[in-house]
Amino acid sequence: MKGIAFLCIIYISRLCTCGEVRGRNSATRKQGRNGKGVESTVNKDNDPPTGVPSEPDGSTLDLAEPNESLCYSFDYSLDDVPSRMIILRDGASVTSLTVGNTEIWASRDGVGCSIISVRLKDGEPVLVHVVVTVNGSGRSMTISKNMNKWTVGRSSGEFRNLRVETGSSSRFDIDLMLSEDSTNCRVFQAQLDGIPTRFYAPKAGFNGKKVICGRSTIWQCESTKCCRCRKEKKRATITRAHLKNDRPYLVQMTIKDSKDSADSYNFIYEDGNWKSINKITFEVKRLALKKEYQKEQNTSDEDIPSDDSNASTSDIDI
Question: Which residues are in coiled coils (predicted)?
Fold first, then answer.
């Protein structure tokens, strides 16, 4: 999206940098899935830009049990944190999010979300990152659960507190030629803003020390370790590959260091080689690729729909 410097995802995406959402909050108490009262601070998004059409037919999506007719849903591990990625299907409109019977977010004037990333504890959602699309741009927000209360915003340390203890970590190469899960990597694919996109996430207990595509090395970790914690200085936590002719073409990866600071690395396959590019160039190339797929789906340029969504995930936890 243009509103957040270009994903996430895509994604790939800078972690833990979700923005605040303007708007009034109203506290409601609803019945939780376990029968206990759960307080939810619901964001009504009362300050959307003008010109946003009302969409009363927007659907409600339960993050605990996502409706497959509305979205793609994938469970995976993000840096040893159990996670769930939810990407809306083309034409789907979601203007309300719930966890069981508890509403945790509701839109005003039909402003819908396009991508949701969920962190799980004991199989239940406890931390939610959402990209909301408004007039072709996006803004991100975080909704967290604490003491049975859902609120917009987050406190430091929430993500790392959800990590599953694995004892030790094994390092491996993430090969973008894979199209299915392997022993150490979760691989899944969905249409992201009209582009076939494949995601690669190391399974719990594994760290990506190198990202390759067949025999070509795209990125690799420094060989030295942090002196204090003996961790590798950098690791790939999730990688997203936009496909062209069924092969990785645009790649964005989230790289973390031993202090859990994250950064986004962007690459393009051009002239037979993988080249590093900045976020602006990545977004330009992504939009051009999107238009190519639009042309394939239409008989003439006149039938190509206008590009207003620009759904990316570059600065959201995915």
Answer: none
